[in-house]
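Session log. Operator J.P. requested a structure for one protein chain; no other inputs attached. Running the standard single-chain path with token output.
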Amino acid sequence: GKKLITDMIVEPRAGDDAYPQIVLDKRNRPHLLYFDDEKQALLYRVFDGRQWSDPIDIGSLGDEKGDHHPPPRGLGRHALTLDAAGHFHVGYHDFKGYLVYAREGYPTRTSEPDASGPIAIALDPNDVLHVVYATREGQLKYARIAGNNPPFFSILEPSIGYTDDYPWALIADNKGKLDL
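Structure written below.
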């Protein structure tokens, strides 16, 4: 019979705080986002069927001003999705509390410095990125990022309380309806 499960080491020293996120593309290739404790870096890799790509340090991509945004470690503080072309989109908050959005081939973009706790992202059928995250004040916020337009932010819930232990998932169906 066929062996359905293959064990392979992606990163031998990622550490206990890796909190990997995995997404399959249209060709069933796994794309992986994880925090490497030893390197103190948020890393992205893709498996081509034979080997894993070299890691891309998401936090070192820099934004339009050239600022770097290293991520903190922690459950639910980074999220990965792919667009229709298979390019990665990553959301996380950095050590300063900025909500950071990085996508393949473009500089990162940031929000006001109020992000804390879990983050969830999803792309709708029009490749508009939707983000839900918690703030330091315990608010649940929503952001929508379409192309190179400025992000749209709104408060979904003014007080949700302590959220650090609850990672979220955000899903956009084929009509663009969002479920959290």
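Operator note: The mean pLDDT is 75.
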